[in-house]
Design goal:
about 70 residues, mainly alpha, globular
């Protein structure tokens, strides 16, 4: 279980990474990126710069049908 501070950090990073992704039209992309960031955090990664990089990589790998 993640604490409130970590949860807020993950949400901020998700919003930054997906700022050009519509939260309504491309929910699959946002979900995929969020899931990838969350996996990294649950493995113990807490560095914001690395989590953002992980999110950006996930965004670039998201299936094209989601973009």
């Amino acid at each position: 279980m993640l604490d409130g501070v970590t949860t807020a950090l993950l949400r901020k990073i998700l919003d930054e990474v997906c700022e050009s992704v519509s939260p309504y039209d491309d929910a699959g992309v946002r979900t995929y990126v969020a899931s990838t960031i969350l996996e990294a955090a649950t493995r113990g990664e807490t560095r914001p710069d690395l989590l953002k990089q992980i999110g950006q990589e996930a965004l670039s790998r998201a299936p094209t049908m989601w973009r």
